Structure formats: C-alpha cells, structure tokens
Amino acid sequence: MIYFTESEIDQLIEDDVPLGDMTTGMMNLSGKKAKITLLARNPMVACCTEEAVRLYRKVDLKVHHAVASGTELNPGDPLISAEGDAAAVHLVWRTGSALVEFASGVAGRTRQLVQNARAENAATTVAGTRKHPPYMKKVALKALMAGGGVPHRTGLSDTILIFKEHLLFTGGYDNLAETVMKMKAIQKERKIVVEGHTEAQAMAIVRSGADAVQVDKMTPEEFSACASVCRQANPGICMIAAGGINGTNAAAYAKAGADVLVSSWIYFAPPADVKAQIAP
C-alpha cells in the first residue's frame, strides 16, 4: 500500500486552485447541485481512484461508487460517481481525472507487460525501476503495483545494487569477490545485486557470492546463454534482465529464463482515456 498524506492531497487541490476558481465564482455556481461520474472510454486498469475519492471528499462531495485500484474496466464502466455542490465538483474535476488517467495508464501498461511475460514463464516477476518522472514516485509506484508489478528499487536507501560505475573505485570485477564479502559482513539482511554487461562479467558476479546478476542490454538469445552458464555455476542465482524491456520483448526475455524483468517503459504510458460526465 502506498500512503498519500493529507498534505499531499491538499497540495493537489492547491496547485490547481491557489486563489479560488474564478470561472465558477463569476458564474455563481456555488449552492447549485451537481453530480460527476468518471467513465472508462477504453479497456483500462484503474489506479489512484482512492486518492481521487479523497480529493472529492475534501470539498464535501458525497461519493456513491468507486472501484479499487487494480480493477480491470471495459468501455463505459464507471470508476467513480459522486455528487455535491456544483462549484466543488468543478474545483476537483480536472485534478481528479488527470490523476486517475496518468496512474491508470501506467497500471495498464504494467499489466500488459506482466501478462506478456507470464504467458511464457509464470514465475517471472516484472519490476519497475526508479526512473519514474520526478516528483511522481508515489503515483508511479502505486500504479506499478496496481498493474501487478513490484518496485525494483524505491530509491537508493532500500537496496544494494552495484553498477560498474561503483566498481571503478574498488578494483572492478576482478576485485568484486572482496567487495561483496565486505558488504555481506556488514549488511547481513539484504541481498546484493550486481549489474554486468557481458557473460564474463556475469560469471564474475556469480563467483563473487552476490545473490543476483542483473544483465543489462543483452538480447534474449544472449541472455538465455548467459543465464544457462551462470546457473550451472550456481543453480540458485537470481537472473535479472534489464535495459530496453518493453511490451514487444518481455515474453522473449521471460522465455529466455529471466527471473525478473526490470523496466522503465511502464512509466511512460499514454494516459488512460477517462470521460468525466457532469450533470445538474
């Protein structure tokens, strides 16, 4: 569960309405009753409906219906319906819709990636990188999980992932075993993942005692051969495919034996198409 604070919900409103709604104020809409319904225009996976509901309730709208994040919808299916003051409806209409559209687009693309991968390998996990748009971490991660994925890294503080750029300062892959040993002596609870770009580097990672090999930008055929060699040396090694993973090749990497597919592609999905129906 991704928790959004009250101040974050308030900020969404304040960003759009810092000094009131000039249009509805001049039209004297306050005091008139209105209802709003968000409807799916196309097949989609709903996300951030809970936060949209909180937006609605912030301005005293009464919510009658809301689907949970992760719900698959068909064209015409309702996401949220609410009613209340007409000025309040217009106050949160666009913000709520935009939040749901962006998040649902990411959730839908993640679901596509998960389904494509698991059609070839039911055990493959889809993980989202930390390369989401700036300031969108919570929305991006909630959408990722609503679509059936998991966070690869929520940030630098929660994982140990060694890149070749780190190894430039510790003796490279030739000295990796010593690096891993020192890290394991200090941090006994966390797994250590190391990224490699060649089969030789992947084997150095396996021999180092690391828990997982993250292979960057190999073709599915190259990854399959690399995973086979690595698993001969250590049958329990976790093999991660990263770099350019998308909807067109996820199945191929899953079939090639990837335990995990790491992708940033999911975060740059087109927004879902949501219709906001407002009526007196």
UniProtKB/TrEMBL annotation:
GO MF entries: nicotinate-nucleotide diphosphorylase (carboxylating) activity
Any one of the GO CC terms: cytoplasm
Any matching Pfam family: QRPTase_C
Lineage: superkingdom: Bacteria
Coiled coil: none
Residues in Quinolinate phosphoribosyl transferase C-terminal domain copies: 106-274
Quinolinate phosphoribosyl transferase N-terminal domain boundaries: 21-104
Keywords: Glycosyltransferase, Transferase
Alphabetical GO biological process terms: NAD+ biosynthetic process; quinolinate catabolic process
Family of this protein: Belongs to the NadC/ModD family.
PANTHER family with a match to the protein in the record: NICOTINATE-NUCLEOTIDE PYROPHOSPHORYLASE [CARBOXYLATING], PYROPHOSPHORYLASE MODD-RELATED
NCBIfam families: modD
Name of the protein described by the UniProt record: Putative pyrophosphorylase ModD
